[in-house]
Design goal:
globular; 2 helices; about 30% helix
Amino acid sequence: MPSGPAGTRFAERVVHGVGEDGIREEIVVWIERRQGAVWAVGRMIDPKNRSIPEPRPDDYVFEGYELGDALEAANNALSDDLEISAEDGVAEKVELFSEEELLKPLERWFFGHTP
């Protein structure tokens, strides 16, 4: 999982959709853990097509201290993207984020190991 100055990604989902120009796009939604016990949820469109693939400040949809709030924000963003993609004719089944999948890497991260 990618790590950067902002934090370490603990979970990530990819949704495929259709952009306003009719071209297929890739939407990435992720949950990361930052220093200071902060959770962050990010959402990027076509990160591979960016000149600088790292997230920008406006790519983040949530920052806060509660894991439950981060999960809610991530799953809301993911559900919205899945719904819009389905309306555009790209129906995918993508699993929602779960607390269980974050707790194991959190424990490893807490004890100084790579998630």
